[in-house]
Specification:
Elements (H helix, E strand, L loop, with lengths): L2 E12 L2 E12 L3 E5 L6 H9 L6 E6 L5 E3 L12 H9 L3 H8 L6 H4 L8 H14 L4 E5 L7 H13 L3 E5 L3 H7 L2 E6 L2 E5 L3 H36 L6 H13 L25 E12 L2 E12 L3 E5 L6 H8 L7 E6 L5 E4 L13 H8 L6 H10 L16 H13 L5 E5 L7 H13 L3 E5 L3 H7 L2 E6 L2 E4 L4 H14 L19 H41 L3 H32 L5
Parallel strand pairs: 3-7, 3-8, 5-6, 6-7, 12-16, 12-17, 14-15, 15-16
Antiparallel strand pairs: 1-2, 1-4, 8-9, 10-11, 10-13, 17-18
Length: about 600
């Protein structure tokens, strides 16, 4: 394992803040290193310095002679009208057969190789850039937020590529699942210092917390001992008989030093306004069609979303996740069918580009106060502002001078203060660091309202989602499982090569789709089954509670006739539960039966 990169005593300041303060680290040609740290701490600055696009004030970046550095560009390197194969050949100088061979690792088959790059989604364009990166044969990759805006399928392919890559990798990411799956080491940039840890990000966070607890306990013991020594010295230093003993204690006191601990960066703790807990359905879709006047995205959408659910809307990029959210929030009209929110549903919508319309004057705190209930104490505004990285003087910033990322965070914070009982969130984790995304997940898990959201952050999805809706191939439907099961489902599809038939012409042709009327009838039948299944689940819950109460009364009863009556009622309730459980199983099998 040869060292291919060293950073020594790096110093870099920005606006008076030391992003790198005599920071040092080194890495070998086989390490997969996740670079973590709070937003604005200097991670991108460090990456730019390593690839030569920025300079340090002092310090050195030492590269091995045989270092072949590869950098995943965030800009657009494509020419107008250029096909994928033309770009790969132009950018890397490789022959077409080699370009096709490497492109296939990212499932870029011949139809896409011959198609224009500009016609591809951002996720597919990232795959093309990764293929170009690999064709240059690097032995060290520097990747700054490689998973941004990538759908699950592309993220999995990227992970497989990186785990199989024989060189080293330095990766900046806020996606804990990605870092956990790929990285062998964690490099943290905090307060200008770099710390390398031989383990993944979860192990590093646990180690760091444990070490701090040990240091705090040790310091507490030292402080108590110093207090005892100082008390002895104060009582005995002026007495001739004990002055020498006091002098010895003074020397002991001077040797007892507490360990200086870096001030921990504030940990976000987001508290959402309380809302009334409700039961039943919050959103009902009946044969809904979504899309635009010139293009239908999906149709035959039939399902209910229950109050209190945290619903993840998932699917590949370009399939229509945002279109679905915009439709149910009435941001765009539906093309057909219908949907309705339950009575008294009050929803707030966070769109990816919502910050572009933010033109209000005043400061950050004034904006938050206007978005919140008038009874909300000012301390709540300041606390939430801090959670979304507007602490100290930043909370008094004028809205007009905020960057795009700051505006997005401010809009999300304002929405969370609004007291809505339904939140519809399109990529809420964008522009947030790891700690704030975790805090947002905690807040949504405690929230008693309904959440419908999209996200590319698998750690956030795993922690938050209770229900999954998949948008795919003109359909929007409930997935019969949780998010982890959905990931397993996609992994199986990738392994079997089932998702993209035009890239593998030898595959068996798909059966013909039933006509529109048949699809509608099937959707209505599924909708009715879902309603009956939901009703059965509620009845089972009520009967279970009733049986538990009867059992409690039976055990406490000392009257023989009363005990006999209770026993008979328990038997009757048990019979109803058995019948309902059988019906539930039948409904569940019907719902999961593949359509003809």
């Amino acid at each position: 394992m040869a060292i291919v990169l060293q950073v020594k005593d790096a110093l870099k300041r920005y606006g008076g803040v030391r992003l790198l303060d005599n920071a040092s680290f080194s890495m070998t040609d086989s390490q997969k290193v996740g670079l973590i740290g709070r937003n604005g701490c200097g991670k991108t600055t460090l990456c730019r310095a390593i690839i030569g696009e920025d300079e340090l004030e002092t310090g050195d970046i030492i590269k091995a002679r045989d270092l072949r550095l590869g950098y995943l560009r965030q800009d657009n390197p494509f020419l107008p009208g250029e096909t994928v194969i033309e770009f790969l050949q132009r950018d890397t100088g490789s022959p077409d057969w080699r370009c096709g061979e490497i492109a296939w690792q990212f499932e870029i088959g011949k139809p896409r190789l011959d198609g224009q790059v500009s016609a591809l989604s951002s996720g597919w364009q990232t795959r093309v850039k990764l293929a170009a990166l690999l064709l240059r044969n690097p032995n060290l990759l520097v990747l700054d937020e490689p998973t941004n805006f990538l759908d699950l399928r592309t993220q999995i392919l990227l992970e497989r590529f990186l785990k199989g890559f024989r060189g080293g990798c330095l990766m900046v990411s806020h996606d804990r699942a990605f870092l956990r799956n790929v990285c062998t080491h964690t490099l943290e940039l905090e307060n200008g210092k770099l710390t390398m840890f031989p383990g993944d990000v979860d192990s590093w966070i646990a180690h760091k917390q444990k070490q701090r607890e040990v240091d705090e306990k040790t310091n507490a013991v030292i402080v108590a001992r110093r207090r005892q020594l100082q008390d002895f010295i104060d009582r005995n230093r002026v007495r001739a008989a004990t002055a020498s003993r006091a002098q010895a204690k003074i020397k002991m006191l001077e040797k007892l030093k507490v360990k200086e601990l870096d001030s921990p960066e504030d940990t976000a703790r987001i508290r959402l306004p309380s809302v009334e807990r409700r039961k039943g359905w919050a959103l009902s879709c009946e044969d809904l069609e979504i899309g635009y006047p010139s293009f239908k995205v999906a149709g035959g959408i039939c399902f209910d979303v229950n109050h209190g659910s945290r619903v993840a809307v998932v699917g590949d990029n370009g399939q229509g996740k945002t279109t679905f959210l915009r439709t149910i929030t009435r941001d765009i009209p539906s093309l057909g069918g219908g949907f309705r929110w339950s009575q008294n549903a009050k929803f707030g919508f966070y769109a990816q580009n919502v910050y572009e319309s933010l033109k209000e004057g005043g400061t950050v705190l004034e904006y938050l106060s206007r978005r919140a209930d008038p009874r909300t104490p000012p301390a709540v505004f300041r606390n939430l502002a801090g959670c979304f990285l507007f602490s100290g003087d930043d909370a008094e910033k004028q809205v007009s001078v905020l960057s795009g990322g700051e505006r997005a965070r401010l809009c999300l914070a304002g929405l969370l203060l609004g007291g809505f009982n339904v939140l519809v969130l399109d990529e809420p984790g964008n522009h947030l660091d790891v700690e704030t995304v975790d805090a947002l997940a905690d807040a949504l898990n405690e929230y008693e309202g309904t959440v419908v959201f999209t996200s590319h952050d698998r750690h956030f999805l795993e922690r938050t989602a209770t229900t999954v809706i998949e948008v795919r191939d003109g359909r929007v439907a409930l997935f019969p499982g949780d998010y982890r099961e959905y990931v397993d489902h996609v992994l199986l599809e990738i392994a079997a090569g089932e998702r993209d038939p035009k890239d593998r012409p030898a595959r068996q042709p798909a059966p013909p789709h039933p006509d529109k009327d048949v699809r509608k009838e099937r959707a209505r039948a599924l909708h009715a089954l879902q309603r009956e299944l939901s009703s059965a689940e509620k009845q089972l819950e009520r009967l279970g509670e009733r049986k538990a109460e009867l059992n409690r009364q039976f055990l406490a009863s000392s009257n023989p006739s009363e005990a006999q009556r209770l026993h008979a009622e328990i038997s009757a309730v048990s019979g109803k539960i058995t019948a309902l459980e059988e019906r539930w199983m039948t409904l569940h099998e019907e719902l999961n039966k593949p359509s003809a």
